[in-house]
Design brief:
Distance between the termini: 26 Å
Number of helices: 3
Mean pLDDT: 86
Strand order of the largest sheet: 1-4-5-6-10-9-8-7
Shape: globular
Low-confidence stretches: 4-21
Oligomer: single chain
Length: 195
């Protein structure tokens, strides 16, 4: 079963990265709710604490039992976007940190050629009973928007995460229109502390 999870995750990850709200507005016709922080609900008891200044939009997920109680998230601040997409978690099955990092290494390959880093370096992390892994890239030319991550947008910085929470798997993209700054690094830290 575990070998099947990674290909399914990669397919869903590439779909979720393309599902961003282009205008970054709260589309009430799609069921959006704008939430107030600093702690934001991701569904099923999962939360993220973001620094001040983020607008946080919560959308319903597919109306299927596996997604019940989960929300699609877009958080926006000064040219930065955090897109959080929940994925159904196989019942009573833990995903190893090695598997998470392998999936990030594979999905991160698409950014290498245009990046300053020129390599994929998965970074594992854990907080309590939540495990994850991420990869991060910056434009080879500082501030040049070379990465297409979210729909109808280009970015100069991108970080992709996969997080194994006890109640769901979260695919997260954090992007910025500029080179990484303190606000962007604070957002990446907040993502690593989803509980």
């Amino acid at each position: 079963m575990k070998k099947k999870i990674i290909p399914v995750f990669l397919a869903l990850f590439s779909l979720s990265a393309a599902a961003a709200e282009p205008a970054y507005t709260c589309d009430t016709a799609r069921g959006c709710t704008e939430l107030q922080g600093p702690v934001f609900d991701l569904g099923r008891g999962a939360t993220i604490r973001l620094p001040e200044g983020w607008r946080f939009y919560s959308y319903p997920t597919l109306p299927i039992p596996e997604m019940a109680g989960l929300r699609e998230i877009r958080a926006v601040k000064n040219g930065m976007v955090i897109a959080i997409t929940p994925l159904p978690k196989p019942k009573d099955e833990a995903i190893s940190q090695t598997q998470l990092c392998e999936s990030m290494a594979e999905s991160g390959k698409q950014y290498v050629a245009k990046s300053l880093e020129k390599t994929v370096t998965p970074v594992p992390f854990s907080a309590g009973n939540v495990n994850g892994c991420y990869v991060a890239f910056t434009s080879a030319n500082p501030g040049e928007k070379v990465f297409s991550v979210l729909k109808n947008r280009r970015h100069a910085s991108v970080a992709s995460f996969v997080i194994d929470h006890p109640k769901a798997i979260f695919s997260v993209s954090a992007v910025s229109e500029t080179a990484p700054d303190d606000d962007y690094r604070a957002a990446l830290d907040a993502i690593q502390h989803i509980q």
